[in-house]
Amino acid sequence: MKYEPKSFEKKWQVKWEESNIFKTEEDSLKPKCYILDMFPYPSGAGLHVGHFKGYVATDILSRYRRMQGFNVLHPMGWDAFGLPAENYAIKTGTHPEIVTKQNIENIKKQMKDAGLSYDWSKEIDTTDPNYYKWTQWIFLKMFEKGLAYEANMPINWCPSCKTGLANEEVVAGACERCGTLVKQKKLRQWVLRITKYAERLLNDLDDLDWGAEIKEMQKNWIGKSEGAEISFKIEDEELKVFTTRPDTLFGCTYVVLAPENELVLKLKERIENKKELEDYLEKTKLKTERERIAEVKEKTGVQLLGVMALNPANGKKIPVFVADYVLAHYGTGAVMAVPAHDERDYEFAKGFNLDVLEVVKGGDILKEAYTGEGVLVNSGDFNGMESSLAKEKIVDFLKAKKVVKYKLRDWIFSRQRYWGEPIPLIHCPKCGIVPVSIKELPLKLPKVLNYEPTNTGESPLANIAEWINVKCPICNEDAKRETNTMPQWAGSCFYYLRFIDPKNEKEIVNKKDEKHFMPVDLYVGGAEHAVLHLLYSRFWHKFLYDIGVVSEKEPFKKLRNVGLILAHDGQKMSKSKGNTVSSEEIINEFGVDTLRVYEMFMGPFFDAISWNMQGVKGVSRFLNRFWNFCIECKENKFESSENILREENILIKKVEEDLEEMKFNTAIAFFMEFLNFVEKRKTEVSLKTMETVLKLFYPFAPHMAEELWNILGNETFISLEKWPAYDSKLMIEDVMELIVQVNGKVRDKIEVNANLSKGDLEKIALKSEKVQKWLKEKEVKKIIFVPPKLINIVI
RNA sequence: GCCGAGGUGGUGGAAUUGGCAGACACGUAUGCCUUAGGAGCAUAUGCCUUCGGGUGUGAGGGUUCAAAUCCCUCCCUCGGCACCA
Q: Please, which positions of strand B sit below 7 A from a protein CB?
């Protein structure tokens, strides 16, 4: 009987589905385990082999946990709002809903063909009104609590996607989606007050079992700085600056305002060089974010002639500048410049020939700015003090305020596009902004004729009079609906909750099941969402915690990032490059189990590794050998020897340990080693041993395992078998190899009885001919014994 | 520039509580089988070698009986952030 995966893989997929064996149990007494994949955007291109890597890993772990007796929740759904479907609609006139449905069907089939053990009864789709009713509900709750606010401000605008973007969606000055350079555009916006949660989003990272890279990225993104707010007098006006180095205040030889700082306008009227200032302001306004970044090396600015600021530490008069190296949106939009101890101020001061006054010892300020700590000089009463202490003392002396600042900015939440959740608000000329009544949710996305975004910064919804024009829910006068939609990230902020209770019409999730299944025990997906989805969903979750909807502070207890599968050429796989490998192709030629085992064997799960067709063949060869060996075992009916039982128990232990750490590659290597070992000792392997190994291998190659289990004479599903337990007593060796080193170098390996004492082993080691050769005429200084089997003779 | 991850054969990688470096696989070579092989099986495979051995985990130094693993200095690759005061 040959290994022909095509002849049975589909059969088992159908049987699994018919028997509902992957369905999460309701009101189960078993311990729960929630294993979640980042749900995909149902793109028209479908899935290629790279997409499966993470899904296979969570599938393996889900099957493993089920065998261990857990009630596993392992669902799948669709993050289906977004631009590709909408752009396709613009091109073809097909409604995004229709395209989305088709794409979902296609990808779902691909997933089913891959034998992934999802509980499909839990399936969700973020574009389903029954789903986005809850997205809108959460938004209204945020609105109610003052966390959603309207603002008219310059934001990042993608000229290609014709929509505003969140800060997190701008990568190196370009749109995260399409790579077009972003422009600044002043727009009326809905903004979510994520900054209110900055401190909690930062602190709660500590308790999460996430990879170091993602935690660091979030930390840096939130960007907490502790410092002080210090007041300077500029004539009769007050200028507030934020600094993390109040200890350097005596070294402040000028102050700088951002061009956008309000005080600039106030001072403009009384300075001598008004024209020069106006030219500069005009020039900076025209610069894009990108140009500002490119000009980091050359710092420009204008001194406000005729006004001076007062350094509050020593009462000295210092010049005032406007320069675009100071950012308007951070701190107070102004800085106290300490050229001796800040690189940027140093550069600016050099360019404008300003005083550089050393106040902290430790560097050579003739060469460069010294940004480290040290002892204060030129600082009046504070001379001789350590800067760490001076920070406190100078703040006290000024009676200034200690403050904390974050780089994190509020979340620009509205999009000027069609295919997203409508924001459920109404603009009433009398009553202002009025929320749609919760009873009216979902506020459905209306049908439009034209999906094309406008250039005016309004969504296509603005053109549908019958939808826009409503009566105000409060005063019943004529009013208009909000026409912006929500960003793509909205629907994924809480989907993990909806999986628990997808059909509930009364609440997002019922309390009992939420308590039972949350938090997610393992969350697997790509690292590209580090500061997008993963930050946004933590924010929403904390909000839901505050209003009592959820009982845990954090949604994802453990997060692991799947490493990319690169194309053969080391490039990222993409349809446009034409270097993708289709999963259908691999499944057709080698079977699903080969695809699964190969993807897990390629290398460490978390690393990016190139696809290699030779490697696929190697795995296919191994599965063939495994199959053949199993069939032979059935025919032969031997009893397992002690040696085999030992290897069997060691295998159980090793596979279990590696699965816990997601070290799939080494787990599979152990199976290969085991097979290499037993193939030489065929007559010592029992059917029982083989069945145990089959259970261990089942999560990796479930189709093959089911088929072999059946061939070995079992009527039941191997899927429903218990995970084997190992017996440490059976793992003890009676013979071992003694390693003998001389001065740390291996000189002999001797087969010895494992029960010998240290003294006996030393005698054997010294007697060895090979070792004797090295000991000739030398004095043995010391013998070091490292249990259980290494001896180092020092001469 | 700052932060993070990493650097091991021809290749993917194993070994991280300091204790046999190179598991497992790919590739390659030789042989067997075959009408044939992009099939299967067997053996070998870090490098150098005068066949005694020497040497070897990015480079250099240190600690130790013993270092891929710990410490110091430096280099390189990848990812993120990027005038955040």
A: 3-5, 12-15, 19-21, 23-27, 38-42, 53-54, 65-67, 79-85
Residue nearest to nucleotide B67 (CA to C1'): A744
What is the per-residue pLDDT across A463-510, written as a single tens digit (0 to 9) for each? 888 999 999 999 999 999 999 999 999 999 999 999 999 999 999 999
Say which nucleotide is closest to residue A792, CA to C1' distance.
B65
Taking the C-alpha atoms of residue A284 and residue A362, their distance in angstroms, rounded to an integer, is 36
Global confidence as pTM: 0.93
- Chain A residues 604 to 633 whose Cβ lies within 7 Å of strand B are 604, 607, 609-610, 612-615, 617-619, 621-622, 624-625
Strand B lies under 7 A from the Cβ of residue A217? yes
Least confident of A6-10, A156-160, A569-573: A569-573
- Give every CB contact of residue A119 below 8 A, 6+ residues apart in sequence: A22, A23, A24, A73, A74, A75
Least Cα distance to A498 among A22, A155, A34 occurs for A34
Q: Is the CB of A603 under 7 A from strand B?
A: yes
Backbone angles phi, psi at A427, to 5 degrees: -95, 115
Residue A506 Cα to chain centre, angstroms: 31
A 10 A CB-CB count for A786 gives: 10
User: Which residues 517-536 of A interface with strand B at a CB distance below 7 A?
Assistant: 527, 530-531
Question: Can you tell me whether residue A782 is helix, strand or coil?
Answer: strand
Average pLDDT over residues A439-443: 93
Mean pLDDT check: name the lowest of A744-753, A769-778, A781-790.
A769-778
| CB-to-strand B under 7 Å, chain A 744-763 | 744-746, 749
Higher-confidence residue of A235 and A133: namely A133
> Under a CB-based contact definition with an 8 Å cutoff, are residues A232 and A241 in contact?
yes
pLDDT class for A771, splitting at 50, 70, 90? Answer: confident
Across all strands, nucleotide nearest A167 (CA–C1'): B81
Distance A747 CA to B49 C1' (A): 18
> Do residues A187 and A151 lie in contact, with contact meaning Cβ atoms separated by under 8 Å?
no
- The pLDDT of residue A458 is 83
Instruction: Write out the E strands in A373-519.
Output: 401-406, 411-412, 425-428, 432-435, 469-471, 478-481
Distance of CA A245 to the CA centre of its chain: 33
Identify whether the C-beta of residue A331 lies closer than 8 Å to the C-beta of residue A405: yes
The dihedral of CA A199, A202, A204, A207: what is its sign? Answer: negative
- Distance (Å, rounded) from C-alpha A150 to C-alpha A475? 21
Element (H, E) at A36: strand A32-37
The average pLDDT across A512-525 equals: 96
Distance A614 CA to B38 C1' (A): 10
Share of residues in chain A with pLDDT > 90 (%): 69
For strand B, which residues in window 170-199 of chain A come within 7 Å by CB? Answer: 171-172
Torsion of CA A10, A12, A17, A21, to 10 degrees: -160
How confident is residue A288, by pLDDT bands cut at 50, 70 and 90?
low
User: A666 is written with which tokens?
Assistant: 């080494």
User: Which nt sits closest to A625, CA to C1'?
Assistant: B40
Tell me, what's the pLDDT at A556? 95
Mean pLDDT value across residues A212-230: 91
- Lookup: nucleotide whose C1' is closest to A172 CA: B82
Is A739's CB less than 7 Å from nucleic acid strand B?
yes
Q: Is A152 exposed, middle or buried (0-12, 13-18, 19+ CB in 10 A)?
A: exposed
Instruction: Quote the radius of gyration of chain A (alpha carbons, Å).
Output: 34
At A603-662, the pLDDT tens digits run 999 999 999 999 999 999 999 999 999 998 887 778 888 888 989 999 999 999 999 999
d(CA A134, CA A516) in angstroms, rounded, equals 21
